[in-house]
Amino acid sequence: MLSHALEEYPFEACGVLLAAMKDGQHAVRAVRVENRETELPRVRYQIAPEELMGIQREARKQGLEIIGYYHSHPDHPARPSETDRRVAAEGLSDGVFHVVIGVDKGERATPTAWVFRDATQAFAEEPLEID
Amino acid sequence: MAIRVQIPAPLRPLTGGADEVAVDAADLGSLIEALEARHKGLKDRLCDASGNLRSYVRIFVNDEDVRFLQEKATALKAGDVVAIVPAIAGG
User: Fold this and answer.
1) Cys bridge to A84: A41, A91, B14, B90, which one at CB 3.0-4.6 A?
2) Which residues in chain B are closer than 8 Å to A92, comparing Cβ atoms?
């Protein structure tokens, strides 16, 4: 996840976080996904729904499920942007984890973890440990 | 054999935690109505006030995006797998 963010600099990297079903709190795998944003890939990301569906299908076969997503912020803070909040508020995001990775000059990747709640229409920071 | 509907995590509070539900329906529109009858509130998350599928929701029938089929008129048959997938994007 962190190396992916560095490799894609100065563009945003994105991916999917998988956890064991019935656990739901501890991601066991991060799956890289192509950033399908074509107009503003330095400051936006998009995950193709058909790719997400394929990941969901393979994950289920392995007893895993999608619990969240990650994306990078090249030369921007490691916290959800207003765009992230607005898109999450419009979508199916309640309880979904988001890891945001700030990438400073393409050299240093700083991750933070957040969970979105419909009730507050906001992200709340969560503790993050990466093995 | 019914139609299997895969429910993404953010919608599972509406299905009592179930990640998959089985429904009988002849097309996608009636499947959404059947889901709503059993799991109140689901339709509102999938469709806007006009009844059209919301832009942030993608629905696949046997791996085919219904936007490229007949959207809510897409015919369904027993054994089909319907996947509800959120559109993910941000800045």
Assistant:
1) B90
2) 8, 10-11, 45, 56-57, 86
